[in-house]
Design brief:
mainly alpha; 7 helices; 145 residues; 2 domains; disordered C terminus; 58% helix
Length: 145
């Protein structure tokens, strides 16, 4: 069998033994896509809602600090999040600060003990399979093999 005979089955003449393969129409592709979307379930979250809220509160605490503060990248590293998520939170705070202030007024200043408790909740949920497994360094390890 030559290389030309091993083509994609969606291309005309792609499968061996078939006389003609017709490309699916746009309408049938859209119907199939709708079926797939109807069956799709939302992805599991990366962390518990409590941990996400604590990270948001600590990021707002950093955002409203009046004294010297570390860089956003260093604060994000300390919280265990990406600096891009930190930047996204800062943009949200700049756009509408009222929600964050309401949370601050209702719950008071965030503490790192609260964050530790929320992370323990995330760990429990991860063990039960309610949230995604932790795979931060997988790509680096796999590239070394």
């Amino acid at each position: 069998m030559s290389v030309g005979e091993l083509g994609n089955s969606a291309k005309p003449g792609g499968r061996e033994g078939s006389e003609e393969v017709i490309m699916p129409s746009y309408e049938s592709s859209m119907r199939n896509l709708e079926k797939a979307r109807a069956k799709m379930r939302p992805p599991r979250p990366w962390r518990s809602a409590e941990e996400s809220e604590m990270i948001r509160r600590l990021a707002f605490w950093w955002f409203t600090a009046r004294s010297e503060r570390p860089s956003a990248r260093a604060w994000a590293r300390g919280l265990g999040i990406s600096h891009t998520w930190m930047q996204k939170l800062i943009r949200e705070f700049k756009a509408d600060v009222t929600k964050a202030w309401e949370l601050q007024n209702d719950r008071g200043d965030p503490t790192f003990e609260d964050l530790d408790y929320a992370r323990a909740r995330t760990k429990e949920m991860r063990k039960r399979g309610e949230i995604r497994p932790f795979r931060r360094f997988r790509s680096r390890l796999m590239s070394r093999l």
